[in-house]
Write a structure and sequence with these properties.
By secondary structure, the chain is an alpha+beta fold. The protein has helices at residues 19-30, 49-62, 72-79, 120-130, 150-160, 178-182, 186-197, 206-220, 230-258, and strands spanning 2-4, 9-14, 34-36, 40-43, 85-90, 97-106, 110-115, 134-138, 141-145, 163-164, 167-174. The chain contains 9 helices and 11 strands. Strand 8 and strand 9 (141-145) form a beta hairpin.
Length: 259
């Protein structure tokens, strides 16, 4: 929701959020150099640091999923509040962050959850959900240990709850169908991975897969992220290329099967 680059501090707000009209009213009332563009408002007042800090704090805490013990993101934004502020208005769906979680069993009592990218909200949620079963984390891998039968109930609840605040989780399973996976060729494994990238299952109807591809391609198209910081642009561009290549692979395979 709040990010910072070398040019400005950006606050993303959903077009239908209750806070947006209040934020826009505050910006208009308290900043003389505010400029309304098609989908954003620029605040260029260099000397209004206190008012900028208030605005950043307000929007950050209104997100309702901040961690009082980890204010790194907020502190970084406040440290750069001398920069212009860009209030970007987006569709609610554009605020959703998608994270793929690979679930891998180690023996019969341990699970590794590998996140496609680090996210403090998702990590805190997993730690809280699994409680004493949480062993620790290294890079983007979370380690869980089974102590009793309630552990597997927690696993099933975790898999069933795909939305955490503004995060959408999608799951990729490893070792749950070990007998099937073991005998797949590298090409077959690659094809299944392509289906997973398009939020699909192997064997799904091609027209359904195509619809999902078009939706993802529109969502991650690089043109949507003009003006974002370089890392965010790179992440989304990489994702867009993976989506495109996955669709090409599935389409090529589908063409071979129908001829």
């Amino acid at each position: 929701m709040i990010s910072c680059c070398d040019k400005y501090v950006q606050i993303k707000l959903a077009e239908d959020s209750k806070i947006l009209p209040k934020v826009l009213s505050y910006a208009k009332k308290h900043f003389s150099r505010n400029y309304r563009l098609s989908s954003s408002v620029l605040i260029l007042d260099d000397g209004e640091i206190v008012k900028k800090n208030y605005l950043i704090n307000w929007c950050y805490h209104a997100a309702n999923h901040y961690d009082p013990n980890d204010n790194t993101e907020l502190e970084f934004a406040l440290a750069n509040s001398h920069l212009p502020i860009r209030i970007k208005m987006v569709k609610s769906t554009d605020l959703l962050e998608r994270i793929r979680v690979k679930i891998q069993m180690i023996g019969t009592s341990r699970i590794i959850l590998t996140l496609s990218k680090r996210n403090r909200v998702a990590e805190r949620y997993i730690k809280a959900m699994f409680g004493s079963h949480y062993i620790g984390m290294r890079q983007n891998e979370i380690y869980l240990q089974s102590g009793n039968e309630f552990f597997w109930e927690s696993v099933m609840r975790f898999i069933g709850n795909r939305i955490i605040h503004n995060i959408v989780l999608s799951f990729e399973y490893s070792d749950f169908n070990a007998d099937e996976i073991t005998f797949l060729t590298s090409q077959e494994k690659e094809l299944r991975q392509c289906y997973a990238i398009l939020d699909s299952q192997f064997g799904d109807d091609f027209e359904l897969v195509k619809k999902r591809y078009l939706k993802l391609a529109r969502e991650y198209h690089p043109d949507n992220f003009y003006g974002e910081n370089e890392k965010e642009i790179l992440d989304y561009t990489t994702k867009f290329h993976k989506i495109t290549e996955a669709y090409k692979t599935i389409k090529r395979t589908e063409h071979l099967h129908t001829n």
